[in-house]
Design a protein that fits this description.
Organism: Amycolatopsis rhizosphaerae
Strand content: under 5%
Low-confidence stretches: 1-5
Protein name: TetR/AcrR family transcriptional regulator
Keywords: DNA-binding, Transcription, Transcription regulation
Distance between the termini: 33 Å
CATH class of the largest domain: Mainly Alpha
Number of strands: 0
Shape: elongated
Largest sheet: none
GO molecular function: DNA-binding transcription factor activity; transcription cis-regulatory region binding
């Protein structure tokens, strides 16, 4: 059984691409608050009923577009050791999600229907990037925390501050990330978790 929003290939893929592009263009031109389903449908060359049938409502469509925009375009940088790899990745993650556009994408991704899994997909992108970093470190013989430990002690505090305390984001994001990584290192040394 095909679920709403998951029909791959052919006409469906072309419609998704056209609608996503229309959303991106209109967001750039008018801002997110001005978007309507009829406006997006007109720009994409489809009927509003096509959008409602596929996505259900504007919130779900914006969530779907946000997930695509949050998808990493490249694997995390390899700096040669776990600390530097995590420092680089976490600093870039913080910079990306704390920007006005990044924050809006996170809010949109979280605003979708939990049953459709857009928020889970964002989490999977993050876990995959962390897994790559940890896998490289393990291959070099470094002691590594679990993926969940990195998510809990690095990603979660960043995400919380971006969503709920954005006015309290530290001016020096590298200091914030460095503190999170120091805390993670202390936990990893005192309570190593086998495997990722």
């Amino acid at each position: 059984m095909t679920t709403k929003g998951s029909r791959p290939g052919g006409r469906s893929a072309r419609i998704q691409q056209a609608v996503h592009q229309a959303v991106r263009d209109l967001q750039d031109e008018l801002g997110r608050a001005e978007l309507t389903v009829p406006m997006i449908a007109d720009r994409a060359g489809v009927t509003p009923s096509t959008i409602y049938r596929r996505w259900g409502d504007l919130t779900e469509l914006l969530s779907d577009v946000a997930v695509e925009r949050l998808r990493p375009q490249a694997p995390p940088a390899d700096r040669g050791n776990l600390h530097d790899d995590l420092m680089t990745w976490a600093s870039e993650f913080l910079e990306e999600v704390s920007s006005p556009t990044g924050r809006a994408f996170i809010v949109d991704a979280l605003g979708g229907d939990p049953e459709r899994g857009n928020a889970g997909q964002c989490s999977a992108f993050t876990a995959e990037a962390v897994g790559i970093i940890l896998g490289r470190a393990a291959a070099r013989g470094e002691r590594t925390p679990s993926i969940e430990m990195v998510l809990d002690h690095v990603v979660a505090p960043i995400t919380y501050r971006v969503l709920f305390r954005s006015d309290r984001l530290w001016d020096d994001s590298r200091t914030f990330v460095r503190t999170l990584l120091s805390n993670l290192a202390a936990i990893t040394v005192t309570n190593p978790t086998p495997g990722n």
